[in-house]
Specification:
Elements (H helix, E strand, L loop, with lengths): L23 H6 L3 H7 L5 E3 L5 E2 L8 E3 L4
Antiparallel strand pairs: 1-2, 1-3
């Protein structure tokens, strides 16, 4: 069984600050629920920082893959 390396609390920053305005946390703060719903209808990643789930890793600050069933 492979061991996943998860970010630590010291890594609790945005891994892609250039795209931060389009990340799920920022969409939530802006009240853009339709965008959030569209970008999280088939979640494959979760944000280690805030726990948001998204279809694409690029929509999160600190993405980690969700375990597949």
């Amino acid at each position: 069984m492979a061991t996943r390396k998860y970010p630590t609390t010291e890594d609790n920053t945005c891994s892609n600050p250039e795209n931060h305005p389009t990340h799920m946390c920022q969409l939530k703060m802006a009240g853009r629920t339709d965008d959030i719903r569209r970008r999280s209808d088939r979640p494959a990643f979760a944000c280690f920082n805030c726990g948001a789930r998204a279809n694409e890793a690029g929509d999160l600050c600190s993405p980690t893959p969700l375990a597949s069933d």
